[in-house]
Amino acid sequence: MQFKSIFAMASLAIACAAHAQDKWLIGQSAPLTGGNAQFGKDIRDGAQAYFAMLNSKGGVQGKPIELLSIDDKNDRKQAGANAKTLLENKNVLALFGFASATLSLDAIPQAEAKEVPFFAPFSGANPVRVNSPVLFTVRASYGEEMEKILNFWTSLGMKRVTVVHYEDEVGKQNLEVVTNYLKKINLAPQALPLKRNAVVGKPEVQALVAQQPDLLIYTVLSGAAAELQKGLVEMGRTVPTSSLSFVGADQYITAAGPASAGVSISQVVPNPRSNIPVVHECAKAMEAAGIKTMNSTHLEACFGAKVLAEGVRRAKKPVTAKTVLEALTNLGAYDLGGYKITFAAGAQHGSKFVDLAMVTRDGKLMSN
């Protein structure tokens, strides 16, 4: 009986190993519940839609790609724990689409230790702009976003700038980006620090109004930004406002409702309704996946999924995380179809594309 039991267990282990090898696994930690759940779901769904389209055509190197997403509830420690699970237990080719720099902080060192690509985090903050052999981004930095935002507003004479940021490591770095830019033109920003994941209410709105800003810049998530904006409208205050792409444009518009009108939001991908070939390709993938309206988060996730899949396609056999890492590092210039990224050893931040868009009265995002 003992021999039969051991034999059965061995057979099961072999079967499980064979099953794991019949697909390419990509790991993701994302906020699928909690206050930032819609953003996390949109990242997941945008990537899954593209992988599903590829899989319907035979996959990559003869196998389908599966995105394995684990909920981190927008909590840094949980994201780090999820990364450990994915890296140690799931044999993933890459970690993909972590929803912020904060959620990436504890995951990147783990990916470095395992020599697994850490691909397309949804942030342009400094912690995900470092030179790491495993870190790849497909979007512009927050510094590049801030430069475009501040160039526009300061050219109109705006001088009293208030930055709404999180009172943590990443949030303070975002404030520093603005501080360094304004210092060049002999200005200094004011700041309104918020605790991450904390409720935002009247006290924070009043503190913001007390600073009497000419210009308001959000570097926080959609929920916090929306509550501040609705509070300002309720008080009858109108302040020119811009936000980093980090806010999640569609998520912010939904959360703020009519109060979002007039707010400008930087974008790191083209308009989801543009005529660029890769945008059409992603729109078809979303439609096939049952997503009726593709937003900028879906689109960015689709772009990331396409580039990562190209890395898997170019990887030497046998395909492993290390060969995918090598392929991505040597990818060079890659045109997705009207949107280009470039990777090389030591230069793995692939895009500098930034556009400014404004929320219209009917809740649409219109590019300049």
Number of helices: 13
- CATH topology description of the largest domain: Rossmann fold
Measured by DSSP, the beta-strand proportion falls in 15-25%
- SSE pattern, N- to C-terminal: HEHEHEHHEEHEHEHEHEHEHHHEEEE
- Give me the CATH superfamily of the largest domain: Response regulator
Let me know the largest β-sheet.
7 strands, mixed
- Structurally, the number of domains stands at 2
Specify the structural class. alpha/beta
Give the CATH level 1 class of the largest domain: Alpha Beta
- Shape verdict: globular
Poorly predicted runs are: 1-20
Overall radius of gyration = 22 Å
Q: Strand order of the main beta sheet, please? A: 7-6-8-9-10-13-14
Secondary structure: number of strands = 14
Mean pLDDT: 92
Question: How does CATH name the architecture of the largest domain?
Answer: 3-Layer(aba) Sandwich
Please report the distance between the alpha carbons of the first and last residues: 74 Å
Portion in helices? 40-55%
